[in-house]
Fold this protein.
Amino acid sequence: MAAELGASRLLAPYFSSSQIVWTIIIGTIMIALALGAVFGGKWADRDPDPDKLYLRIMAAAVWISLIPLVGKYVVLLVSGLLIVTVSTNFLVIAAFASCMIVFVPPLFLLGTVTAGLNKFATDSLDDNASVVGRLSACNTIGSILGTFLPTFVTIPAVGTFVTFLVFSGLLLAIPIVYFVSMRAKRVACAVSAAVFAVSAVLSPMSGFAFWENSSTLAYEGESIYNYLQVKNLSDRTVLSTNVLFGVQSVTMKDQGLTGMYYDTALAAPALADHARSALVLGMGTGTYARQLRRYYPKMKVRGVEIDAKITRLAGEYFDEPADVPVDTYDGRAWLAASRGKYDVIMVDAYQDITIPFQMSSDEFFTMVRNHLNPGGVMVVNMNMVSDGRGSINEALQTTIANVFDGACRIGTTYTADVPGTTNRELFAKAPTADELGHYDGCSDSWRRTGGIATVSEPLTSTMRGDVKEQALRAAAWERTHDGALAAYMSEVASRMTPVRDPSPDSGDQARILTDDHAPVELLGMRAIDNIIAEQAGPYREILRKEGIPGLLREVR
């Protein structure tokens, strides 16, 4: 179990820690253990020599001790080879190949142990069941310790690399003690101890992103939830939780607009009927809070961030405003426990590179709508521009438009793509005070969860007029008196695109995400495939025409 949890943390900075990656890890390790049990039983029956059993344990321990030193290079090599050769399902194939190469061999060897121990511990068939039961109990206790200790003790305290070394060292001690007591295999013991010592010394010296310039890498570490990397660049400081895809938070060293999606999201306070309060779900390092503090200094801002270590880094490296309260909690759970209402709610919560499924459903967005003041606006950062039938953005946009339209409105939801990035900002407006006066308060109880319902003459949301260039620019100027921001809002208005209002007759029902059915990880994986295909396309063409030598020349 310790190896399994370590595997998830080794792969997460490259492939994410999504359910897809966890499935691959668990599946491949179970395959390795099953094959090990089969072959271990055959080997024990054919040659019941305990020396060979302890040699297999020793080999597995040495292999695991080398994972923190060599594993990251294998993962990068596999990723580099596949990214120019695989067109679809990159995450699945790359994670599976990495697991097969890095983790299957030692887990196969460990899988042979139980069958061998059963052979050596059984003196007669009269108590064979008791022997098997005790061995199973020992296995289970070891699994319990291997589950809780890495998650709650070693990984948060000393990191993934040292966790591998701690557990491989404990495993290696077993065969060494056996062989020393038997005065056998002294060379094997010495070599194994030497390899372990080399890995223990060298592994902590290089991180997951070992190719990064050490002069710009300000911090690299781990929390219970994430791999964390802070880079201090000439014009900005950035936080990443994944070394291959994307930036999670950024602070510009010059005051003003960031040039990133945060600027487009600043349209939300201008679109809302009032701009007195804001809630940020997925606070990260506080970029939204800093921008709101700069342009809307009188606005009361509150943040929610599940990872306490990110909040600590925000204060240490990112100048997060000290007067903005940040609650360490899951965003949805926080909403469920809160009664507060806000003029603006900004949703920017990601699990590595995908939206958590519980924060992408009809139920979640209904909760957000209920926490908005009349005429309040929600803005959601969708970090993967992926259009077309069956895309993640189609599902999210349909779900959100259905929730905010409710049963009696249309035209509530708009999107704006961010130039030069893979981001899209979605804006949705809650019913205004006047709109709530129609249809008995425009109650969402008229619509069942995940369902589409509408009255015969729905109201047209004021959002349709709010997104016009003149209106958006005027609102931004009136509330901030900042000419640069007001001018930028004119440009944002030109990018505003209405989201089609869901209809029960158009097949939209199947696109609505619910707690019961929200396959955001699979949909996100398709979007990542599209991004990789676009970025890696030229390299694939070089590989097809000039082969590996040509590709290496281009990379150099």
